[in-house]
């Protein structure tokens, strides 16, 4: 079952640098506007996704200098040459997984930890892998401060997945790959879904939705996207 989301905006953000009551309320208002205008106002219709996006504080996952822009619909820098995806893309990829509350999810590319936090509000368990140690450790710290207990962070090469935790009901890759890693397909459960950006590193990629049913793999392109490259050791 989903861990209780014990997060208190005032307490958690105070741990991250301190904010006024006014700033807390402003962030909550901006988050609700984001859900209504950028997500529900477009093509995000999955109620669980909308509820999760309304609950998770994006400002907690970005550097202090970027917090004024936390609810703008664009990527933001998080250090080490990486970015946090725009809210719409996080919601779109989450919705595309067609998640159930009992699902076990593998995320490749923890980054800021925001996508994992959103997933944690919908599914039973999230296992997330980050290749850059500083990002992985920071994401783990923020998730802990927000009392999100059903996310496990691992530092390592996501190309090989997390074999000892497989199979996964869903796999989400938040970095652009030149091809779909066969190992990840193997770790996807029967009737599982994978969402992954695929294409050349210096060009526009296709966001691919892969499904596995009765041993057969089917892929569908959902949209053109731009993502930072899938980094490997």
Outline:
The protein has 233 residues and is α/β, with parallel strands linked by helices. The protein is built from 7 helices and 9 strands. The chain has one domain: Vaccinia Virus protein VP39 (Rossmann fold, 3-Layer(aba) Sandwich).
Q: Can you walk me through this structure?
A:
The chain has 233 residues and is α/β, with parallel strands linked by helices. The protein has one domain: 3-Layer(aba) Sandwich (Rossmann fold). The chain contains 7 helices and 9 strands, in the order αααββαβαβαββαβββ. Strands 5-4-3-6-7-8-9 form a 7-stranded mixed β-sheet. A hairpin with a 6-residue loop joins strand 7 and strand 8. The protein is globular, with a radius of gyration of 17 Å.
Gap between N and C termini, in Å?
Answer: 34 Å
Rg for CA atoms: 17 Å
**CATH domain topology:** Rossmann fold
The unreliable regions are 1-22
User: Class by helix and strand content?
Assistant: alpha/beta
Write the CATH architecture name.
3-Layer(aba) Sandwich
Strand content: 25-35%
In total, the number of strands is: 9
- Overall shape: it is globular
Number of domains: 1
Q: Write out the strand line-up for the largest beta sheet, numbering strands in chain order.
A: 5-4-3-6-7-8-9
Number of helices: 7
Main pleated-sheet profile:
7 strands, mixed
CATH-defined superfamily: Vaccinia Virus protein VP39
The CATH class: Alpha Beta
pLDDT averaged residue by residue: 89
Q: Which structural traits does this protein have?
A:
233 residues, alpha/beta, Rossmann fold, seven-stranded mixed sheet, two-stranded antiparallel ribbon, globular
């Amino acid at each position: 079952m989903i861990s209780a989301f014990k997060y208190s905006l005032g307490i958690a953000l105070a741990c991250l640098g301190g904010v006024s009551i006014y700033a807390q309320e402003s962030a909550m208002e901006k988050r609700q506007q984001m859900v209504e205008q950028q997500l529900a106002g477009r093509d995000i219709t999955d109620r669980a996704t909308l509820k999760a996006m309304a609950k998770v504080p994006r400002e907690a996952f970005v550097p202090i200098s970027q917090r004024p822009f936390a609810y703008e619909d664009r990527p933001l820098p998080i250090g080490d040459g990486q970015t946090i995806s725009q809210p719409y893309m996080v919601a779109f990829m989450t919705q595309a997984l067609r998640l159930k509350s009992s699902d076990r999810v593998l995320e490749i590319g923890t980054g800021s930890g925001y996508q994992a936090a959103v997933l944690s509000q919908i599914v039973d368990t999230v296992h997330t892998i980050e290749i850059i140690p500083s990002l992985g450790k920071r994401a783990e710290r923020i998730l802990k401060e927000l009392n999100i207990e059903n996310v496990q962070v691992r530092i390592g090469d996501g190309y090989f997945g997390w074999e000892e935790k497989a199979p996964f009901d869903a796999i989400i890759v938040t970095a652009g790959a030149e091809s779909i890693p066969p190992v990840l397909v193997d770790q996807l459960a029967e009737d599982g879904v994978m969402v992954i950006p695929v294409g050349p590193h210096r060009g526009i990629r296709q966001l691919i939705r892969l499904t596995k049913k009765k041993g057969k793999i089917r892929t569908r392109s959902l949209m053109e996207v731009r993502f930072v490259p899938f980094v490997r050791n």
